[in-house]
Design a protein that fits this description.
Elements (H helix, E strand, L loop, with lengths): L6 H11 L2 E7 L6 E3 L4 E3 L4 E12 L23 E6 L11 E6 L12 E4 L12 E7 L7
Antiparallel strand pairs: 1-4, 1-6, 2-3, 4-5, 5-8, 6-7, 7-8
């Protein structure tokens, strides 16, 4: 008995939803190096694992942002911002803690995606019947300039 083939459905989904260009990168390893010219630390460069069609969406409006207290520590300054990245099944599985950025948005797309960065919460999902690869993300919060 032949199984269900989602190849054609995957192509339609890719054409309708994966309209932006996303980058998945492995964070650089090693300690930051102090740059005396700028007075700032330079972090090791991330290694790009995938750059191609994709989408980043809020995981759910109902979940919102939550902060979880940790025993013996003050209330955390960062919130959890649940998002998900969608990439073609041909894209590699993002590993936990890889960094995801939107490199470009399609015409009419949300330019607010540019300049943001997300961290993969777990490896990308894989399943018997999938049309796209799903990776759950948490937005990397930007530090405030004082």
């Amino acid at each position: 008995m032949a199984g269900l083939d989602l190849t054609q459905i995957a192509r339609v989904v890719e054409d309708l939803i994966l309209l932006d260009t996303v980058r998945i990168a492995r964070p650089g390893t090693g300690a930051p190096v102090f740059d005396p010219d700028t007075g700032e630390y330079t972090y090791p460069e991330a290694a790009t694992v995938y750059e191609g069609p994709g989408a980043v969406q809020a995981a759910s409006a109902a979940t919102g942002n939550t902060s979880l207290p940790v025993p013996n520590l003050p209330w955390p300054a960062e919130t959890r911002s649940p998002y998900r990245a969608l990439t073609p099944l041909s894209a590699p599985i993002a590993e936990k803690d890889m960094l995801i950025t939107v490199v470009s948005v399609h015409a009419g797309g949300d330019a607010a995606l540019l300049g943001r960065q997300w961290r993969a919460q777990d490896p990308s999902l894989a399943g018997t019947l999938s049309a796209v690869r799903v990776t759950f993300l948490d937005q990397v919060q930007q530090s405030r300039e004082v």
